[in-house]
Design goal:
three-stranded antiparallel β-sheet, Peptide Deformylase, 174 residues, 3 helices, alpha+beta, five-stranded antiparallel β-sheet, globular
Length: 174
């Protein structure tokens, strides 16, 4: 098990444009994917949330993501090749600022071209929650944080305050 520290908001590496992976099926790339998986699962166990993580969040500047929604999946050099015009609005959170929630808009559906760690090319069609997650993680390898996509500065809040407001108002969504 190789759990790595998650970089927090303010660390300049989170704003870096990551580099493309050029060699596949290498011990170094497999080690990165293992570190991402171990770190994601540890974070989820300790914090009760977490579906994906990007390499820059553990200090690696390669274009690699790891998600675990309906099973584990490593995406190398992911690229959004199609986005729907239809958008969704949601509250997003992030390992790199785990106490904050950000209201933003994302495309309802996307198509992502990527390679697996062995180098085989894939096309993933995603909708709803999976599309949102992939957009979030791909933003990370492009040096973009969810905070950058906030609908406005009033929609960056502490998660605990958002939950309190939902309880007080009796509404599930704010």
């Amino acid at each position: 098990m190789s759990i790595r520290p998650v970089l927090l908001l303010g660390n300049p590496l989170l704003r870096s444009l990551c580099v493309r992976v050029r060699q596949y099926n290498t011990p170094d790339l497999r080690a990165l994917v293992r570190d991402l998986a171990d770190t994601l699962h540890d974070f989820r166990r300790r914090n009760g949330f977490g579906r994906g993580i990007a390499a820059p969040q553990i200090g690696d500047k390669r274009r690699v993501l790891f998600i675990d929604v309906d099973g584990p999946l490593a995406l190398v050099n992911p690229e959004i090749v199609r986005s729907s015009r239809q958008m969704m609005t949601l509250w997003d959170d992030c390992f790199s600022f785990p106490e904050l929630a950000v209201k933003l808009k994302r495309h309802l559906s996307i198509e992502v071209r990527y390679r697996d760690p062995e180098g085989k090319e894939h096309l993933l069609k995603a909708r709803g929650a999976l599309a949102e997650l992939l957009q979030h993680e791909i933003d990370h390898v492009n040096g973009i944080l969810a905070l950058d996509r906030a609908v406005d500065s009033k929609h960056i809040v502490y998660k605990s305050e958002l939950e309190r407001l939902k309880r007080v108002s009796g509404r599930k969504e704010m």
